[in-house]
Design goal:
Blueprint (H helix, E strand, L loop, with lengths): L1 E8 L5 H18 L2 E9 L8 H13 L2 E4 L9 H9 L4 E3 L7 H31 L7 H26 L5 H10 L12 H12 L1
Parallel strand pairs: 1-2, 1-3, 3-4
Helix pairs in contact: 3-4, 5-7, 6-7
Amino acid sequence: MDYIAYIRTSTDTQNNGLEAQEKAIQSYLDTNEGNRLETYVEQVSGRKNNREELTKALAHCKKAGATLIVSKLDRLSRRVSFIANLMESKVKLHIVDMPNADNFTLHIWASLGEKEAQLISERTKQALSVLKAKGVKLGSPLNKERSQKAKDFALSLLPTINQLKEQGITSYYALASKLNDMGIKTFTNSTWKPMTVSRTLKYIIT
């Protein structure tokens, strides 16, 4: 069976979350001999309905007759209405940690997820209010510094990326494979994966 993978975290600092999702999806595909056509990676709040990469993933699924695969339901959304609209779109959906879930079950879990998101938001706001009242400055300069270094690295890689694209190497999978073949390491000195390519390209275009 053909699959389109969708991986999402809320912020661009949750790289461990991306890795965990990728590992869960790949494990399922290996076990079930699934064929992955492409991976779409997004770092945006699950509360937002307008998500560019998810829209691309759904369009790809419809065009290829493929199944959208995610590691957990909340990687799509914690909103019941969003999940309901997705199921009505007729795109086949597979949740790795809920392999036997039907539409009824997904609706129930979406409802629980929506409530959990509300509670998390309330607790976060309360915690931030307490810190602010104590005079704590929110936000880390180290995160900003690391983000700038990552962007500089991405820009230095831009000529190579453009050259590969001119050769017809455009998908995240193909780019990751070629960069590894060329011996080029990632910003963290690791091997390239599709989601790493996606993150790097994000720095270039933002």
